[in-house]
Amino acid sequence: MIPVEKWTQEINTLFISNRVQLRRAAYKILGDWERSDDIVQDAYIKIIEMTAAQDIRQPLAYMFQIVRNLAIDHYRRMVFETELFGIDEEGLHVPAQADLPETHAINRQHIALVIQVLAKLPERTKRVFELYRIDGYTHRMIADELNISTSLANILIRETTNHCRNALQSCSAVPQ
To answer: In this predicted structure, what is the pLDDT of residue 174?
Structure first.
């Protein structure tokens, strides 16, 4: 029986040195590099969780077999889901809810409500939120721009978002 530490070290070395080939094996089945990466990671986790007590004489061949099996399972699941739910393009011919007049009215009400909420906030808080949501600044950029910490920028954004969310939820709540 191999000690657990030695087993883990051997598996780590094998995965690192054969990662590209393992990924390529999964790609041959899936035809998608990102999913192939996921499969290789899942295989690594599956193997590393095994105990060293299992007598695996050829760990590299075993790794390839696990990658292959996981890729086949994933491919079968994708085919099943596609058959069950159809392809995404089928939903393209459904009328968009955004084009309905009532949707435009609701959106205008929501925007007016958010504007009211923002008007009640301190100027710095409002500015942080605008930089984040409208100008697309990162927390670090906001901190540098307003000479505050990134933690404070994060807190102000989260609080403002919560204020807006709460206002929209109270507006959308249906009285019973």
So the answer is: 46
Q: Please, are residues 157 and 139 in contact by the beta-carbon 8 Å criterion?
A: yes
Global pTM exceeds 0.85: no
Residues 163 and 149: beta-carbon distance below 8 Å? no
For residue 92, what is the DSSP state? G
3-state helix/strand/coil string of the chain? CCCHHHHHHHHHHHHHHHHHHHHHHHHHHHCCHHHHHHHHHHHHHHHHCCCCCCCCCCHHHHHHHHHHHHHHHHHHHHHHHHHHHCCHHHHHHCCCHHHCHHHHHHHHHHHHHHHHHHHCCCHHHHHHHHHHHCCCCCHHHHHHHHCCCHHHHHHHHHHHHHHHHHHHHHHHCCCC
Question: Distance of CA 104 to CAs 115, 160, 165, 168, 174, Å?
Answer: 16, 24, 19, 15, 19
Q: How far is CA 172 from CA 95, 103, 163, in A?
A: 23, 13, 14
Query: pLDDT tens digits, residue range 53-81?
Result: 577 788 889 889 999 999 999 999 888 87
Give the rounded percent of residues in the chain with a pLDDT score beyond 70: 85
171 vs 65, higher pLDDT: 65
> How far does CA 46 lie from the centroid of its chain?
22
